Amino acid sequence: MNTTTDFTSNFWNIYICVIVIVSIIAVFWLLLSQSKSTVKKGEEVKTVGHVWDEDLEEYNNPLPRWWMIMFLLTLVFSVGYLIVYPGMGDYKGYFKWTSHNQYEGEVAEANKAYKSQYDKYLQTDVKMLATDPQAMKTAQNLYNTYCMQCHGADARGSRGFPNLTDSDWLWGGEPEQIHESIRDGRMGIMAAWGEQLTSDQIEDAANYVLSLSGKPHNTTSAMRGNDVFHNPPANCATCHGADGKGILTQGPNLTDNIWLWGSSKKAIIDTITNGHENEMPAWGEFLDESKVHLLTAYVWGLSNNTKKEATK
Fold first, then answer.
1. Looking at the structure, do residues 142 and 118 belong to the same domain, yes or no?
2. What is the predicted pLDDT for the residue at 53?
């Protein structure tokens, strides 16, 4: 939280401070008011009038001394906390503590502690590094922290998120290409053709795409779809290739059984009609080169059976 820009008026700073101070004073007053005994020596203690379970009553005795002391210590602690740490409007506290600064400090300490190990990984070839069990254990921790949310715990992806364990790569599966994908990110766009094509043309194109991968389809419709696929205004071959086998960095292979958005006729029609946009974030702005290098080795190893090779 950036407290210097959170408030556009000083009113809110004053408002928060007043609430905090009044609350502490009110609780302190309540504590004092309950610490005095209203029963004189030798006088019988009366009940407050509350009755539970027909015969259980509450006597009007003062609070226990030990409880009062603990409550008072809590109030003292809260005042000390508000002096040391932020909590009073935009007052930053004596130590100027922020969660961001604490995070940066912990990261710096961790980087210092493990720098030599990461430097060693950085100097090792990606393919060789992928066979190092200790390095891959560290890499898996990085993967679980930064990549698992999209690609899954088993790296097999899900609808809209690619599988990292197969050999299908839109942006290339060589170490250099994977490294670039992780470091710089990627933006994939499938154009929406719903406004340029009629519903019949879209259905014909979908049947043609189904025929490319050997899936059940309407043959007559697919023949018409061949024209939609290869000629304007759609001309799908521009990105997917004349044979539908895809073009690196342009469009995926449509002749295999790997589908990012689904292989049913309905899913394909939806893709052609509405298009899709996918973004792989650029981790180079967040992770240093050694971590990107280590993740590259891990991802490359997922699709190259390095674990099996290492045991041969």
1. yes
2. 79
Alpha-carbon distance 127 to 116, whole Å?
20
Q: Residue 165 — pLDDT band, cuts 50, 70, 90? A: very high
pTM: 0.69
Same-domain pairing of 156 and 76: no
CB 309 within 8 A of CB 131: yes
Please tell me whether residues 164 and 231 are part of one structural domain.
no
Question: How many CB atoms sit inside 10 A of residue 121's CB?
Answer: 20
Judged on CB neighbours under 10 Å (0-12, 13-18, 19+), 258 is: middle
CA angle, 70 then 74 then 76, to 5°: 115
Looking at the DSSP bridge assignments, the partners of residue 139 are none
- The enclosing H or E element of 116 equals helix 99-122
Whether residue 94 lies inside any domain: the answer is: no
The answer to whether residues 184 and 287 touch, using CB atoms and an 8 Å cutoff, is: no
